[in-house]
Amino acid sequence: MTDVRTRRPALIALLTACLSVTLLLAPQPASAASKSCADQVVADWYGDGRVDKIFPLHCYQEAIRSLPIDVLDYSNAKEDILRALQFARQNKEDPGPTGSEEPTDTAGAPTSTGPSDPTDPSDPAEPGSQGDPGEQTVASAPVDTSGPSSIPIPLFILGGLALLLLAAGGAGYLSRRAQARREGGPPGPA
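Given the sequence above, the corresponding structure tokens read:
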């Protein structure tokens, strides 16, 4: 009769080997092997700033929700994906951004760029309103202090302080020399 202590390690090794082979040969789930449709929309947009393929409509909204904050803040990803959604609703591919496109809202309806109320006094298109550029007087063009050819303002301040300190030091030196002449000898050690 064999001892239970010698069979246990062999049994554990056999079970571990079987489990390892089963896990290695098991098929991977489809969701782990492929990207979600939202990820596919975002990946398509990252290529050239437009969505070249037509995806199911829900994928576009999911893609916008999955965008990182910095991409939403610093790119046109949301607008580009919404534009692609509008074309996908018509079964057309997104042609990409063009300068001649008429602006549309999220429902795809054209938005008006003109004044909403012609009698509104705050409308910048109305003459005499606060937004009328004809009433503003511009003495000169704005100065760009951030350009490579401009001198930074803190440099002016530091230069002024340096000149003030040099003047104060020079005045102290001259007053000591004048005092030494009156007393008849060279100034003593400091």
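The chain is about 50% helix and 0% strand. Try to locate this feature in the token string yourself.
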